Amino acid sequence: MSLILSLDTSTTVCSVALHRDGAVLACFELFTEKSSSGMLTTLIRNVVHDSGHQLSDLDAVAVAKGPGSYTGLRIGVSTAKGLCFALDKPLLAINTLEAMAWQLSGFYPASYALCPLLDARRMEVYCAVYDADVLEIRPTSAQIIDDQSFADLLTQQPVVFFGNGAAKCRAVLAHQPNAVFPEQVIHPSARTVGQLAAIAYQESRFENVADFEPYYLKDFVGTKPKKLVV
């Protein structure tokens, strides 16, 4: 038996879910144009309270570790670690892209590959490729998208491109007959983070709470503020 609180703040979507043995008990999500991570603690309180539990009832806390937004990941991981320290509970970390692919598991034929994409600014995306059973075909990476992206894979099988970075692929790969683009944008969600976390809990794949860091994938590059012209 496992009661797991899961958090996903990889993008502007702020998502919190509570699962018992992989079955969702409650899930609250905020979809905004700007980061909604500031509402994270409120969502945590609501999810736990509305499902009739207390934080002390938890067996573990899970978090989407990235890749994704630097700020969002920092907030999510810091909150998860704080809960683990305060409650003396183990920490589980789930790859954001894997959890996204899990959302589409079973929706496409076995011959299809699943490629979740998260916007990494300009023409770059964070991506990975999974088979229909969400087994990794290509590991998580940061890629610049052009008309040759995924060309070798697209000659072999249909590939479903989804996530908030899929529009970049659609712009240059829509002519490829094996490129599939769902009409609905698939966002990261704590709902599938919790399902994968239940498996990780059974396998005792716990993180070192003190040392754990988000999976940023690439170094942060800040922007200099523009000088004020008077």
UniProtKB/TrEMBL annotation:
Residue ranges of domain Gcp-like in the record: 35-228
- Per the record, GO CC terms? cytosol
Q: Does the keyword section mention Ribonucleoprotein? A: no
**Swiss-Prot/TrEMBL GO biological process terms:** tRNA threonylcarbamoyladenosine modification
Entries under Pfam families matching the protein: TsaD
Q: Which domain of life is it from?
A: Bacteria
MF terms (GO), sorted A to Z: transferase activity
Keywords (A to Z) from UniProt: Transferase
Q: Which residue spans traverse the membrane?
A: none
Q: Kindly give the NCBIfam families that the UniProt entry links to this protein.
A: T6A_YeaZ
Report what the protein is called. tRNA (Adenosine(37)-N6)-threonylcarbamoyltransferase complex dimerization subunit type 1 TsaB
